[in-house]
Design the sequence.
């Protein structure tokens, strides 16, 4: 099962390597990992997408909590939540395909943020599955480059992760 | 008053009441050593290899329950210390290791004797710090001591660049430091404890399984009271030996790969299992799938939530300090109206006595060759069961665990988790320094002892009168045993060629050496070594033991606990 784990940790040098090291040392999967400081600059918020059985996810949560720099851990997938990922795709946009590319981007509510006479750079946000769907909807031969941030997530409604 | 970083390190250690710092100087820590020279609050013990410094600090912590301290220089000082740190980490031992680092402006430039200490030690410490600003130094030292000693204990590394040790700042040692991200649980959950007590009282075939957490958590008295009150059988893990008296009738001995028949059978067939400060590791329960075949309900008390339901699913998890949880459970138990089912207990004990009557640890000391088990039994007799025993890793370690009956906690000092050969002698140094009047013996083998033998020199310098009991079978015995069982007796590289004359070696270091070849000389040699005449001397006893003796019972890797090989079956 795919899980999205959110955590708050001290924004200190080496904090990221403690988390990354834990995952590799204990052979846990990381599908994606994003991290940035929060509104409180002493705190970092990290979102980790991982795949594992319930037992493994329980261990991951416990092991993360055990790290001395980690303040709070939450498995977002245990409740209702919102997941977003940002993707930038540079595509070939020439001839007949140029108009078609624009239409497909519109359907996915993508925005074209850079244009040349032969390329578009499209910005898309959504759950990972939506970004996958966009990439499947266009001809792979047109893709020059893709950049994805990995998922960020937040609980719905009152559900929040804070100190 | 302003102080340099080096002074701050030394004054922090003094404030913590540190008695001994085990270390080895080098470029990056020279400022700190200069401050050590000027003080008299603690004693510095100069080892002959940084690995031994950490082992000695680790043993000091194991024997006293206080935080052990080691000090090493940057680069190779650190890499040499890593084995010691990992050893302490695997057994959850509270130590603080202060490491020198190249000056901050040189970090990352591949400077002389530079390694990424925080990176190298990260997977084998509870936590580590790189102190980049002298203003953070005192608070960091305080944090290091708090983190090492509380919750599930463990090693903490404080990496101090050389320029930081020279910088000046106001020195204030904080009484405590709040850490919002670090709050270990102490009290157990009351609802879970009630459920646990109820489950224990309903048990027909109960079993108590106590690990190193009981020793580390100083919970032996509470555990003994609980065990006596319930009348249940109890087993100790390798790390838990001494956590409950070995000579108590209710104690079935050690369990696991080389555990007793009765302990392993009772563990496998119980219907309610109370696990206290133990972690169901692979050397203890064997194959978890085989273990899970029998239906049983499990209560697990541990200070570390991640130890619970890691290898074995449990029914009643209780996170908390074992001493606090056991104290609370005892109270609940005394208030309970029900008593354990006497008829069920009787028939369970009848079954256990039947298993016990197999006498699985019997061996035959006849003939002209010394049996290793005999040496350990005699050592137990000669020291009246009251010595501190350190061991190395291998067959001798298992024989020590099986035949030296530990009645007190913190008397058995060995590397259980990492299985580090070479710990025995530095462990004995750390223990003997902590308890100068105690009997301290290092049970070792001719292979293990050579991995830190340079420490005989340290023992001479500080007059550390430990007794080294070498069970010399000219083989890496445990390797040989596995090769005999699982590799068609092809003894690849497990024979120890060209052994030194240990008697002369001991003498060369200024100690007393003895070589014992005959069974009838074993007791006399031990008595002489522990006699008042040699009380101040290190005695190195080289016992020539049976080359082909194996450790039994044995649960093969991947097999179930009840699938033991017994001595008589071969």
Sequence:
């Amino acid at each position: 099962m795919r899980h999205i784990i959110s955590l708050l940790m001290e924004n200190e040098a080496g904090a990221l390597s403690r988390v990354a090291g834990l995952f590799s040392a204990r052979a846990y999967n990381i599908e994606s990992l994003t991290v940035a400081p929060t509104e409180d600059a002493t705190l970092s918020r990290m979102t980790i997408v991982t795949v594992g059985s319930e037992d493994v996810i329980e261990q991951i949560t416990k092991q993360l909590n055990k790290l001395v720099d980690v303040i709070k851990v939450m498995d977002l997938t245990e409740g209702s939540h919102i997941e977003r990922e940002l993707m930038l795709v540079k595509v070939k946009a020439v001839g007949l395909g140029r108009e078609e590319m624009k239409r497909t981007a519109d359907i996915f509510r993508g925005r074209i943020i850079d244009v040349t006479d032969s390329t578009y750079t499209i910005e898309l946000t959504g759950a990972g599955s939506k970004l996958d769907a966009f990439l499947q909807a266009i001809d792979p031969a047109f893709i020059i480059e893709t950049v994805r941030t990995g998922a960020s997530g937040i609980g719905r409604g009152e559900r929040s992760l804070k100190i | 008053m302003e102080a340099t970083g080096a002074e701050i390190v030394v004054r922090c250690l003094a404030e913590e009441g540190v008695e001994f710092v085990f270390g080895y100087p080098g470029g990056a820590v020279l400022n700190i050593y200069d401050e050590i020279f000027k003080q008299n609050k603690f004693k510095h013990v100069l080892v002959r290899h940084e690995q031994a410094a950490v082992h000695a600090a680790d043993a000091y912590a194991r024997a006293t329950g206080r935080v052990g301290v080691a000090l090493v220089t940057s680069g190779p000082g650190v890499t040499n210390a890593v084995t010691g740190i990992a050893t302490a980490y695997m057994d959850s031992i509270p130590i603080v290791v202060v490491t020198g680092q190249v000056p901050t402006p040189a970090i990352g430039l591949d400077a002389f004797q530079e390694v990424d200490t925080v990176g190298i030690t990260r997977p084998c410490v509870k936590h580590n710090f790189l102190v980049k600003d002298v203003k953070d130094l005192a608070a960091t030292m305080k944090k290091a001591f708090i983190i090492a000693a509380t919750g599930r204990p463990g090693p903490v590394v404080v990496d101090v660049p050389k320029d930081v040790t020279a910088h000046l700042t106001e020195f204030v040692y904080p009484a405590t430091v709040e850490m919002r991200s670090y709050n270990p649980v102490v009290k157990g959950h009351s609802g879970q404890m009630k459920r646990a007590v109820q489950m224990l009282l309903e048990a027909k075939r109960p079993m108590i399984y106590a690990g190193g957490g009981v020793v580390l958590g100083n919970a032996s008295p509470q555990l003994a009271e609980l065990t006596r009150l319930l009348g249940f059988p109890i087993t100790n893990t390798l790390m838990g030996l001494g956590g409950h008296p070995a000579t108590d009738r209710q104690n079935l001995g050690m369990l696991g790969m080389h555990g007793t028949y009765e302990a392993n059978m009772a563990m496998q067939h119980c219907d309610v299992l109370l696990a206290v400060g133990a972690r169901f590791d692979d050397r203890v329960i064997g194959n978890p799938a085989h273990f899970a075949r029998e239906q049983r309900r499990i209560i697990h008390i541990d200070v570390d939530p991640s130890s619970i339901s890691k290898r074995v699913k449990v029914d009643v998890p209780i996170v908390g300090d074992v001493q606090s949880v056991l104290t609370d459970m005892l109270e609940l138990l005394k208030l309970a109206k029900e008593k354990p089912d006497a008829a069920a207990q009787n028939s369970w004990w009848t079954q256990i006595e039947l298993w016990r009557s197999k006498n699985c640890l019997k061996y035959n000391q006849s003939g002209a060759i010394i049996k290793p088990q005999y040496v350990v039994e005699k050592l137990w007799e000669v020291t009246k069961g009251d010595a501190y025993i350190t061991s190395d890793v291998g067959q001798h370690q298992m024989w020590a665990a099986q035949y030296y009956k530990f009645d007190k906690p913190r008397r058995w000092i060995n590397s259980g988790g990492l299985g580090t050969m070479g710990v025995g002698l530095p462990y004995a140094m750390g223990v003997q320094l902590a308890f100068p009047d105690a009997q301290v013996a290092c049970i070792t083998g001719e292979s293990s002892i050579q991995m830190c033998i340079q420490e005989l020199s340290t023992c001479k310098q500080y007059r550390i009168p430990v007794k080294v009991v070498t069970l010399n079978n000219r083989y890496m015995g445990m390797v040989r045993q596995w090769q005999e069982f699982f590799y068609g007796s092809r003894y690849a590289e497990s024979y120890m060629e060209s052994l030194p004359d240990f008697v002369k070696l001991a003498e060369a270091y200024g100690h007393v050496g003895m070589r014992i070849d005959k069974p009838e000389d074993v007791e006399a040699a031990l008595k002489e070594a522990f006699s008042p005449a040699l009380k101040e001397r290190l005695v190195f006893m080289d016992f020539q033991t049976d080359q082909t003796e194996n450790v039994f019972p044995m649960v093969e890797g991947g097999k179930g606990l009840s699938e033991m090989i017994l001595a008589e079956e071969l």
Q: What stands out?
A: The CA atoms of residues 377 and 403 of chain B lie 6 Å apart. DSSP finds 22 helices and 20 strands in chain B. Chain B touches chain A through 17 residues (CB under 8 Å). The mean pLDDT of chain B is 97.
